[in-house]
Structure formats: structure tokens, C-alpha cells
Amino acid sequence: MLLIFNPLLLGGAALASLVKAQADPLLTGTWTTKSRKVFTGPGFYDPVNEKIFEPALTGFSYSFTDDGFYESAYYRAGSNPTNPDCPSGIIQWQHGKYHKASNGSLILNPFAVDGRQLMSDRCTYENAVYTRYHQQEIFKHYEVLPNPYDKAQRLNLYGWDGAPMNPMYLAYKPPQMLPTQTLNPTSAAATGTQPSSTSKSKRDLPGDDDGLVQEALNRKALLKQRHSTNADRLWWLGVSMTALGGVGYFCF
């Protein structure tokens, strides 16, 4: 019997196999840092009403799908050396496609028109500054392994220079994400062109002309994070205070 193969079908199957091979199923799910207050999904960013929701604590979260999509959410606090009572904060959200390169690195390519950034400095601006944002991310390598303390699944990401990031822990599987297609298409997206070379652009946001603003970020939360210490240090501090309390009890 003579078998006839359609080259288009074979090519499509090979392409689908390649895409699937580039997406690592070990990454599938929503991962978050130890604060467990920052998660991707609709609880972080509302694309319909153009609103970002401030988490209770700083941290970051990544979500990945089996078919090569990702989403990221960041909340960072920054100190102010000249005025310690005026910390700043920045929130960033992106989503797009990811793949694992042949050298083991992880490459995240965002949908440029969808990314958002919220910058806050309560001592300088009454309202936070809300802009478009997009930035490709490259991680030199990564690890998915059980946490040695509680056996929870842990994701270790290493930056483009190999520097380790704070570990993340699996929070949801399947992942908690917004839809994986472009959420805020523009004329540039429709024609396939990219925005200007800058990764930040305030133009064309739905709020630029209608007065859309967001309140500045919570100063108390930022101060709390700026002075935070690691968990081990806090544990030993607690042990020390308990010991001192016992000595005080017997002495007085």
C-alpha cells in the first residue's frame, strides 16, 4: 500500500512538537515569593478598568502554562536615603510568551502593548504615575525542586548574569492568570508593528485624556517592607527576647 504524506501536515505537526518542547511542564502553575501576598491574575490587574490592585506586602509572582504563555506580577519597595520617611514603590505587570532555549535559559517575551507599571512616591506626587511597560526577561537558568524544609515545590530563577532571585513556591495549579491573548490591542499591535524603542510609554493609555489616576501606594506598607529582615533573623530575635523575658522574670 502506497502512503502519501502531506508536507503541510507534517510541517504543522513538527512545529507543534517544537513549541511543546520549548515549554517546560515543570513550570506550569502560579508561583509566588515567601510573603504569599502577590499573585498573578485578576486580583492583581484589571485590564478592563485599567486598575492595578496594591498587595498587602511586596513580592513577585510568575505563572506559566503548558503551551508557552506566562504572566508576571511585581511589587517592589525602594528606600529614600535623603528622607527615610519617604519610601517609593513600584508595581509592574506583564504577560506574553516564554520558551526554554537550547542552552537551558528561560526567555520571556511580553506582549508590548499590554504591560503596565505603577510608580509611587507619596512625598513627591499626590497620585501614582501609571504607564505602559514592557521588558523582555532572560533567566540564565532555573530549577524546580522540592523545598528541603516542607517539601513544597520551589522555583529558583537566576538572572541573566546568574544572580539568584528570591525563591518562589507553587501556589496554584492550574495557574491563576488573565487570558493569554493581547488584552489591550492598539493600531500598532493590529499591524504587527512595535512601539518605540523605549520600554515605557505613557501615551495612548485610556486614562491619559479622561483623568484616570490611581492613589499613591500605602506608605506604611512600604516602610514595613523597607525595614524587613529575613525569617531566620526574626526567629533568633524572638528566641533572644524570650530568653531575656525569662531572666527578667526571675530577677525582678
Structural commentary:
The chain is globular. The chain has 4 helices and 15 strands. The strands form 2 sheets. Strands 1, 4, 5, 6, 7, 8, 9, 10, 11, 12, 13, 14 and 15 form a 13-stranded antiparallel sheet that branches. Strands 2-3 form a two-stranded antiparallel ribbon. The protein is α+β, with helices and mostly antiparallel strands and 252 residues long. The N and C termini lie far apart (99 Å). It has helices spanning 7-22, 187-191, 219-226, 231-251, and strands at residues 29-32, 45-46, 51-52, 59-64, 69-78, 88-100, 106-110, 116-120, 127-133, 137-139, 141-146, 153-158, 168-172, 200-201, 214-215. It is 20% helix and 31% strand. Mean pLDDT is 76; it is low at 7-21, 187-214, 219-244 and 246-252.
Task: Write a compact overview of the structure shown.
With 252 residues, the chain is of the alpha+beta class.
Backbone structural class: alpha+beta
Number of helices: 4
End-to-end Cα distance, whole Å, is: 99 Å
Q: Which word captures the global form?
A: globular
Strand content: 25-35%
Q: Report the sheet with the most strands, covering strand number, pairing sense and barrel closure.
A: 13 strands, antiparallel
What level of helicity do the residues show? 10-25%
Which stretches are low in confidence, meaning pLDDT under 50 for 5 or more residues running?
7-21, 187-214, 219-244, 246-252
Count of strand segments: 15
The pLDDT mean sits at 76
Radius of gyration: 22 Å
Q: What's the SSE pattern? A: HEEEEEEEEEEEEEHEEHH
